[in-house]
Every structure is written in C-alpha cells, then in structure tokens.
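Have a close read of the entry that follows and walk me through the local backbone shapes. See right below:
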Amino acid sequence: MDSNRNADGTLKKGHSLNVGATYDNTKRKQVFAALEKAVTLKDVRTIVKKAVTQAIDGDAAARKFIFEYLLGKPVALVEVDATLKTPGIDQWWAEALGRLEDE
C-alpha cells in the first residue's frame, strides 16, 4: 500500500496527490539557493564578457546565448546563416564589451 495513504485508501493528513511536484519545487529552490551563494556578480560578469568575446570572434552558440538572454527566445524560430555579417555588428559588439568592462 502507498505510504501516503490510510488503510481505507484516503490520503494521510499533510499529503497530496502532487507529491512529486512539491519535491521538485523544493529541490529547485535548494539548487537556486546554492547557486546564488556560489556565483558572485563578478563571476557573472566574467562569464558574460567571455561569451561576448566568443560571439565577436564568430561563435554562433555564444551569439545565440547572448541574444536569447538580451531579447528572449524568438516566438518563431528563424534559420539564420551564421556566416553572414550584419553591417555594424562588430562595432556594436565592441561597444557592448566596453560597457561591460566599465562596470
């Protein structure tokens, strides 16, 4: 018999049918709390600077990472040719990196 149920099949006091979700939410909160303690704002800036540098150097995954966090994920996916360069994008990336270094 299920340990969350009484002999007559009813749920024991304090138990619900959604036990897994409660556990998942608790675990998620614990993971986020641990990350919040372990990762400093300086660490985040270092990671972002590295991603921006990689994106400037042509890393498509880094560009995707940066833009998804800046703009959010696109509603509809659009296939982009990673070899194309938008006029002025190199200057934009350089200015963005410079602003991060100033902080």
Q: What stands out?
A: Residues 41-102 form one domain. Residues 19-38 form the longest helix (20 residues).
